[in-house]
Amino acid sequence: MVRAGALLLATNAYHRVVPGAIRPRFATVHYSQFATDPLPPAARARILPGGEGCWDTALVMSSIRTDAAGRLILGGMGDGGGPGRVVHTAWARRKLGRMFPWLGEIGFTHSWAGRIAMTADHVPKVVAFGPRAHAIFGFSGRGISPGTVFGTAAARTLLGGSGAGYPLDPVDAYSEAFVTAKSAFYEGGAIAAHAAGLIPTDKR
C-alpha cells in the first residue's frame, strides 16, 4: 500500500484504471514517426537548418523534424503498428520522396507510434476527483508546451505552494460519448487519406 498526501494522474492517453480514481474519457488518435539514418552534412544543412519542427494544417496532420544526430523524422496521423501499418509506411516513403526528391533513395531505418488523447473541443481537462487528487489529460496533440505549464501548476497546487493555480478551472467530472467510435473514425480516416495516394492518377 502506498500513502501520499496528494495524487496526480498525468498519464494522458496511456491511462490505466486506478481503484477509486476517475477513468478519463477521450478519443484516442495514433501518431506514427519514421526516421532515416543521419543525413550527410550537406543535406542536413538544407533541411530545417535551425533545428525547427514543422507541422502542416491538414485534417490528417503530418510533420517533419530532425534530431540531434541529423536524422530526418517524418510523422503522420495513423497507427504505424496497427492494421494500417503497410499503408502508413508506404505513405511516409512517398511523402519523403515528394518533399525531398534530391535525397535520392534514402529510406527509413526506424519507426514508432504513440497515442494522443483528443478531447472534443481540443482543450485539456483538469478533473478534481478528491481532496488534493487531480487528473490532467486531453492535450490533443499539443502537449509539449502546455504539458509543461500544466505540470508546473499541478505541482504548485497539490503541494500547497505559491502560484495562481491551473490555466483553467478544474471540474468535478468530465465525460465524452462515443469515444471508441471516434477513435476508429480517426484511424480509418488516416488510412483512407494515406491509401489515396496508392492509386495511380492519369496526369495526361
| Arrangement of strands in the largest sheet | 3-4-5-2-6
Q: How many distinct helices? A: 4
Radius of gyration: 20 Å
| N-C termini distance | 71 Å
**How would you sum up the major sheet?**
5 strands, antiparallel
- Unreliable segments of 5+ consecutive residues: none
Portion in helices: 25-40%
Structural category is alpha+beta
How would you describe the overall organization of this protein?
- With 204 residues, the protein is α+β, with helices and mostly antiparallel strands.
- It has 4 helices and 8 strands, in the order E-E-H-E-E-E-H-E-E-E-H-H.
- It has helices spanning 41-44, 85-99, 144-158, 179-196; strands at 7-9, 27-38, 54-55, 62-66, 71-77, 108-118, 125-130, 133-137.
- The strands form 2 sheets. The chain has a 5-stranded antiparallel sheet, covered by helices on one side. Strands 1-8-7 form a 3-stranded mixed sheet, covered by helices on one side.
- A hairpin with a 6-residue loop joins strand 3 and strand 4.
- Helix 2 crosses helix 4.
- The model has no long low-confidence stretch (mean pLDDT 89).
Layout of secondary structure:
Blueprint: E1 7-9, E2 27-38, H1 41-44, E3 54-55, E4 62-66, E5 71-77, H2 85-99, E6 108-118, E7 125-130, E8 133-137, H3 144-158, H4 179-196
Parallel strand pairs: 1-8
Antiparallel strand pairs: 2-5, 2-6, 3-4, 4-5, 7-8
Helix pairs in contact: 2-4
